[in-house]
Specification:
The complex is a heterodimer of chains A (339) and B (327). Helix content of chain A is 41%, strand content 11%. Chain A is built from twelve helices and eight strands. In chain A, helix 1 packs antiparallel against helix 11, helix 1 packs across helix 12 and helix 3 packs parallel to helix 9. The longest helix of chain A is centred in the last third of the chain and has 24 residues. Chain B is an alpha/beta fold. In chain B, the strands form three sheets. A seven-stranded mixed beta sheet of chain B has the order 3-2-4-5-7-6-12, with helices on both faces. A five-stranded mixed beta sheet of chain B has the order 9-11-10-13-14, sandwiched between helices. In chain B, strands 1-8 form a two-stranded antiparallel ribbon. Classes of the chains: A alpha/beta (339), B alpha/beta (327). At the A-B interface, helix 6 and helix 7 of A face helix 4 and helix 5 of B.
Chain lengths: 339, 327
Amino acid sequence: MTSAPGKDRLYVMQYPRDLLLDLHRRMLAIRLCEESLVEPILDGSIRCPVHLCSGQEAVAVGVCAALRQDDYVMGNHRSHGHFLAKGGRMEALVAEVFGKEGGCSRGRGGSMHLIDPSVGMLGSAPIVSGTISLALGAALAGKIRGDQRVAVSFFGDGATGEGVLYESLNFAALMHLPMLFVCENNLYATHMPIGDCRPACALSDIARPFGMESVCVEGNDVLAVLAVAQEAVAACREGRGPVFIEASTYRLRGHVGPDDNIQGTHTDIRPPEELARWRENDPITTFEARLVAEGAASDEELARMRGEVGREVEAAHAFAAQSPHPPAEELAAHLFKHD
Amino acid sequence: MPTLTYVMAINQALHQMMEADDSVFLMGQGVKSPWYVGNAANGLLDRFGPDRVIDTPVSENAVTGAGVGTALAGMRPIVVHPRMDFMFYAFDPIINQAANWYYMNGGRLSAPVVVWGIINRGGEQAAQHSQALHATFAHVPGLKVVMPASPHDAKGLMIAAIQDDNPVVFIDDRWLHGIEGEVPAEPYAVPLGRAAVRREGSDVTITALSYMTHLALQAAEELAAEGISAEVLDLRSVKPMDRAAVLASVNKTGRLLVCDPGWQSFGASAEVAALVAEEGCAGLKAPVRRLALPDLPAPASGPLEKAYYPVAGDVAQAVRQLVQSQS
């Protein structure tokens, strides 16, 4: 498998127009949904911690576009994008963030616990690296059943400091499990630059000692991510898994909340010029420009799409607003199944 | 009725459940080796193959997490830890993930995993090859914890644990593996959360778990010769605890000795004592007593080890003192 650096841009027109527009729409849905949460976070109407994924949409969308609906995905604390890209309903996400009964987890989980088994989203959880081994199990289930299902674990660069990642890499490689380890390298583990966490920064190298196929991809190029993910998924379905994918990307918002500098106790220590450089490399605006430049879509079409997605976001907020909070008398509900 | 050893009763449960349900499978360290799990996995590999009997690398955290993940994906895994002490490495998947999952997602998806830990103690193995961690797991919302004392219950509780739609921690003790008892040939479940009166009595209630149940029964025999009638209640389930059975017995006898195979402080014995303190005090003729392990790591050297683990005589002595004391 080869890496797909930015210089070797895949030609947009190699792809069906419907696919291109669908990828764009999915990224846009994530971005506009994320940005719609900023104001409610700042005015206090959203109270749970929200780790926005603005800037990292191409990883979630590119990977999930390579999957079938019955493939499995598991996420972490920053998984709004994974949930939406896998097909989770936006109103269920927004309602969850607002702590409503209509949320995907009935208000019991909040932003960090997103789930929709009907589309293969088995859940997300904020213990760093905690869901890697769970996704490993989902892949193992696929192997035992022989049902050709693939499992994806999304985790950040920070998770590469956790031992269970290496245990899972070993186990997955040993058992040839149909699993994608997708490391979203946004260069920071909360406040700590990756260079301060590890002696060497090449995260894609960490799986190689286990004999695992590893690839490094420009995570802000949705087509590059899609190409790598399609190849990895095909390998998994043929029993040539697992595959490790390092996707380089960047978060445009705070570690938690819209802006670490004005929120809570965090301070955004990232150099302003670095942030500016990555803003130039925004996965959505750069893709839009390519679509237009290569004649795949017109400005009008894209503006229309943006309007449609904007209305979806408004509808999701309207749904969340009218959804009730879980009643206090149901505090003890859902502890055990069938009890 | 056929007679089986405790360990072969577990083995029979695994054979029958794996036969009945394709989604049931076993994984963990040493499932190919009787040295690890004491014959509990005999014949499974040959019968069900390596896809469903998975001997794993030494990676408790990832392997247990993988078990939980297979459960989320529709399987019914049994993850075995040949020594409970190794389970500390698996606390995140068991406690943070499996126990919380169903509540945390509002009842959308549960993790029906059986995490099977063996208390493997004695023989001068010292502090890290001996621990009984049932109270630690029972403290966590979302987990059920069982500790069968008899071959009959070893089979029935293993089957119930596998069938349950939630994470269950199943704990056995290597000292029980050779014990023989009547075990029906057909599959059956012993309901979780139900205690069993092992011996009826009128002067004192002894609640016990796992190996301690046998000490309590031996003690009751000894005490009967002295004219003391002890009722032995085998809790079987640490959590949910059969509170009604405890209260019913204590209301009948008026005295309670709580025997527990774990450490005394902040353990399972405190929960039984607290239940009686909160709801069953009215008829008590004497203060509640407890007999558990001292608040110490297990020692290696034989004489220290002998001093560390209670025997039937200690149970009998505690009962005598209880019967002599007045409230």
